[in-house]
Fold each of these.
Amino acid sequence: MTAPAVSVSTIGKNALSTATQPLPLTDLVLESLAITKRGVDELLIESEFAQKLARAEKTGTPLRIKLGLDPTAPDLHLGHTVVLNKLRQLQNLGHQVIFLIGDFTSMIGDPSGRNITRPPLTKEQIEANAMTYFGQASLVLDAARTEIRYNSEWSDPLGARGMIELASRYTVARMMERDDFTKRYKSGTPISVHEFLYPLMQGYDSVALKSDLELGGTDQKFNLLVGRELQKDYGQEPQCILTMPLLEGLDGVDKMSKSKNNYIGITEAPAMMFGKLMSISDTMMWRYFELLSFRSLEDIAALKVTVAGGANPRDAKVALAQEIVTRFHSAQAATEALADFVNRSKGGIPDDVPEITLAGAPMGVSHLLKAAGLCASTSEAMRMVDQGGVRIDGAVVTDKAIKVEAGTVVLQVGKRKFARVTLTA
């Protein structure tokens, strides 16, 4: 394999030759290290990264810091921003951030955390999702200082010969050290050969980009380590790896995911975003502060003391919700979202209620809720009535058999779903 991307850089050679002569850690380096470590799960290997920071300060050459995201879905949520926030912090420290879109690896499908084979995306799906990825990530990153790359740049030219040569650099035994592969093998769940290629190709990305540090979630640790080992094999200075915790979703149990419907999208309407943040538990609120807030650790600690001393935790949650809505929308939007939330809490109707016209009066309430898009099915609608979660013009519905006559009514399901429906015969 002779692709230019895998040649050893001058910086890499110098670093390898001076590895036995540690550089002193200045106050600036120690401060940068502290910022890097805030909220992380692991930084491997910390002493190596400290030396990388010291070298960058001495030479004036920024570190190359890589984050790869496969465009498996078109929208980003707050869970994605945990690692994006860290990337922005490193960007603010003056380092070169590389936002890598895994258009090639998406065609393989990341097996991380999976107990079944993950179906690969089509080329058309990948292109459609990738179109929105960086635009949304730019709500966190400084787009002007971000290098955007696609791993098809170096993966496509490999060809069959290059792929075989790359595969020869890693053993099946090493690959089976991966926890999810081991569990699937022991349980008799099929593992496709192409899944072994995913960590290899992600690792090869680090070789091609000459990465100094790669970021990822805790579920990516194996893949990040493969990149480190491949860099050694290609004669490069190995990257350090930084893993960030996986943010739990609104349920406080599973990691935030669109498939589990426990997510907060970063492009959601301000009122919806604010309401979802207010719905998290008082305990989970501190986890969100730690991983999402830009407040200092001292400020967060002071808030905890205030709440522990008897202050209403709702006030702290409001502060968090306003900070997040301001970041992704504006301060005015956050203020309006708070007012909307207070209005809803008092049983009021928000200003932005969608208006729908339906025919078929008189119509049973369960069918009406489904037709208005407020419930996925009539059975869900009836369950919501049983739970006291349905209102018509502000009045709680207790009779599942009620029929709604022709006219205009405001329907409400739960705390956040509204629709103004004009029902005709």
Amino acid sequence: MAQHHDHRHGHGHQHGRDEHHGHDHDDFDWNRLAPHLEAQAELFAPLYREVMDWLARDGAEPGLIVDAGSGPGVISGLFAEAFPGARVVAVDGAEPLLERAAARAARLGVGDRLSTLAGELPGVLGELEYPADLLWASNSLHHLGDQRAALAAFADSLAPGGTVAILESGLPARFLPRDLGFGRPGLQARIDGVESVWFSRMREELPGAVAEAEDWPALLAAAGLRHTGTRSFLRDVPAPLDADARAYVAGVLGRVRDAIGEGLDADDLATLDRLLDPDDEAGVHRRPDVFVLAAYTVHRAVKPR
């Protein structure tokens, strides 16, 4: 597993992790993708800090935090900063991303409290030295074929009284006005439809895939956990964007073009190409009305003592 993604190729449903899921760990170029994963998580860092403030109200400060599907460790580092008394373990299947997580922790001055563990979820959680007081899974769960079994494994890795927090679903991100002034209005809504089909196919093709109603509180309860809250968090970066946020939007739309372009019609592809042209005044590199607006939903549950 690796972070944020953004599982639907970085467009409407990105959560700071995992567009790379479904690629073979041995031949995927993680170092090429890592800067995008880091830029995404950094752009959404204010949202993640709000999540952590919410989680901190749930009880005593955790001794051990596990970031299950950490990728390059941006959120792992934020956890180390938010909970200065905690140890953090970044868990991921992609060792090049964990190397970046360790380097980031050293730069942040939290390398003594942040360690890494390489292996595939959920089995690798059995290698933890201690049960976790807080297990965070940001869009990693839906890349596991049997989500119900995975949640049971998450619960098994928790200490009594420990919390699991899963970031799943939310609202598709928006970057562009409905009417761009060229092409057919409503481009992002049509991209959402293609991505939804892609996502369903991705789920169906996972090893051991089990179709499951996405009722996360019910699934957490089925794992023996007590659901203690669901909340959505907003990231609102209004126009005009700075250069880093513009580059992020361009990167997202470029991956949409590469990954699901065959699902769009010729007119929409032409619109995307114009949006991605750095020399076009109407493209996302230059137009003044590009923004970032997204909502991420977090579900929280506690293991009974």
Amino acid sequence: MHPINQTEFTEFILQGFPGSAALQKYLFVPILFIYLLTIIGNILIVAIVLHDPHLHNPMYFFLGNFSSLEVLYVTTLSPKMLADFLAKKKSICFYCCIIQAFLHFFLGATEFCLLASMSFDRYIAICKPLHYSVIMNYRLCLQLALGSWLGGLLTVILQTVLLCQLPFCGPNTINHFYCDVTPLLGLACANTDLLEQMVLVGSVLLLFSTFLLTAISYSFIIFTIMHISSSSGRQKAFSTCVAHLTVVSIQYGTVMFMYVKPNSSSSLEINKVVSVLNTIVTPLLNPFIYTLRNKDVKEALKKMACINEKMFC
């Protein structure tokens, strides 16, 4: 790779979604609605967790962190996407593009680390219930949360530094609706084999290490649940894991499809479709997944609604 940044232009052009300009304008309203609903849903979860003392435990501490991450993650991409739906020229400044790519991967990597921490919490809660409050104390929860952020940062920081040093001398059109690393590397006028391998290895190590921790945790969880004598006890224990398992399945499925494969076998057009699921749809679904079957959250929401109703009456 070239050691000096020899960029000869100051902006990239985002190709966006296929179709006419008129068609893309019709996408503005539904995407805006999804974005606002995602922000409201995740912020509401954070507010409920902070407001209700009954939810001040490790499970909801991690849920609040995860919802906060989702707000940051979707805000990294959606506002620029919405602006491009109405703009004639879908441009983004060079360093803005690098920052967006960094934040996208940093926050995404942090989410996977946090999902692994959440699976460890469920393992302790179900497999070691008598020691749960001792093991999952505030200090350990804080360390796991901060470790998740640090793990996400360490995964992407070196690749981002090397990406900034690549020379980009044209063309400057990115075949995507946001600054993704794969199409960015395709525009560099230098050998990017090393950086491509680093991105692939970093993605594989992060995804499979966190997936392995999650799989091990749930192996013990399932083994413990199967040995619970009462069917109601088994159902109650498993119900605490359903939401987390659902989110894990969606997150790992979409991201592994997009990134854990050689670039030669990838299709950017297919990746765009999968990226919509990962960057727009999944953050919207998470608040509903965690609340629809969760009695504690629904009760806390009812209490908050009653308090607000009394305040305005």
Amino acid sequence: MTCYEELKARGLVAQVTNEEEISKMINEGKATFYIGFDCTADSLTAGHFMALTLMKRLQMAGNRPIALIGGGTTMIGDPSGRTDMRKMLTKEDIDHNAECFKRQMERFIDFGEGKAMMLNNAEWLLSLNYVELLREVGACFSVNNMLRAECYKQRMEKGLSFLEFNYMIMQSYDFYYMFQHYGCNMQFGGDDQWSNMLGGTELIRRKLGKDAHAMTITLLTDSQGKKMGKTAGNAVWLDPNKTSPYDFYQYWRNVDDADVLKCIRMLTFLPIEQINEMDKWEGSQLNTAKEILAYELTKMVHGEEEAQKAQSAARALFVGGGDMSNTPSTTLSAGDLTDGAIGILDLMLKCGLAPSKKEARRLVEQGGVSANGEKVSDVNTAFTAGQMSGDGLMIKKGKKVFHRVLVE
């Protein structure tokens, strides 16, 4: 199976501009491609997994990835898939986030001389003269076509700012610039980026002629990745200080039955033949598939040791056996207690099990909190230092979130 055939078999290809040319370049290892990452936070999320593993797959086949950090485009904000305007970040915030992205990407991509490149579009976008930009590329874009673009539809309903309207031009200019200066001949992105990506393809064709168009190839990955990485409204981060390896493992362990094999196919590096055999699995076998998915992805992000710890802790909690010491835990000091005890609402805040007392109260009142196997029904319940000594106090939120509390 060729590299491109494997991408299709794994369900990664949604739309392409020229499939014959794309498959030939990828299979021969002649693609220099980019994927963009806007720096809206100080950590990548599980939703970036598809892009990261895709870059790794293509690099293993001899192609050259460009990880494009959006230091410039982040200052505008991508309106794709949004009903409101993104928060405006300072240049200092963006630079900090870009550095955090780089450290995390290095776990997946092999950077270095003649290998993958990491670029920041702030290098060329922030130095552009507005009038010169309008004269150079403005005539290549039809406002009528831009207004029909899928990426603007939701924002048009509530009001699209002129700032955001320029995002397509900036993203298109990125491809145009990298095509000229870095030999970038292919771009990847989610399906909500299709209009923006076609803008780049068309800009190169208009500015550099028909011959250049043959080298300008857009391949599109399914935007499933953007739907991943969020649970109960909270992002699942790759940074272990924001999402612990255990919680990361548990997120993937708890994917829906209908999604587990799709995730394994798209995100892991297990042989496609092995995954195809798993298509026949059902019932309890799907739980085994979820363990495989969670272990493989946790190992990829946090290393094999942390993956083993997370798996052991999960098994200890849910099926018995395994090392309970690896369960997520919080150690309180005497200063955290009042008269030698702490109330359940404060305790949930300390453990990060609720963002506010109001939310903690709601969870308790709705019967969603237990302590050492017994439901906590009174919001005034308090626990003493003695109850949290030894093996600690095990708090359970909902059906699947466990947290151990100890006292120094």
